Amino acid sequence: MAYVHTTQGSQASVPQPESQISWAAAREPIVVVIQDANELGDAIDGICDCLGILVERITSYDDLAATLRLCRPMAVVAEMDAAGQDGCHVLITVAAYDQRLPVLMITGDDPTLLGAIDAVEEVWQVGAVVKWPRLLGAGEIVNFLFHAGHSGNCLRLMPL
Question: Which one in 8, 52, 88, 92 has a CA-CA gap of 20 to 30 Å to 82?
Fold first, then answer.
């Protein structure tokens, strides 16, 4: 059984079994975007703004664990192999937080990177990874956000 340490202020509380924590009920309509350039965030910002979703941008996966705990997002968007990022580390960090948290991973076409993602998904049992070779159009992004919001019970959108 996995245990999760929760913190309150500067004191850590007693570890709780992960199965007793309802992550899905705690999600907020926030998307964490890990980016090294503005392209990824800019593509997501306009769509999220129209849908009433907040975007929390971070520039390195080093900030991801703390951001997940503070924001309780409905999804994470990241690039597999951008400067300041390591897609496998992103997936491992997300899995440690919530294995069901949807992740949109921009992968590129490198078969070695795709194989690494598949291995991390299997070993860490990350269950909600969507892989795209490049950032697709608005319809696909809205579809991803709809499913993420629906799975997190935090967004009331109609499917397209």
Answer: 52
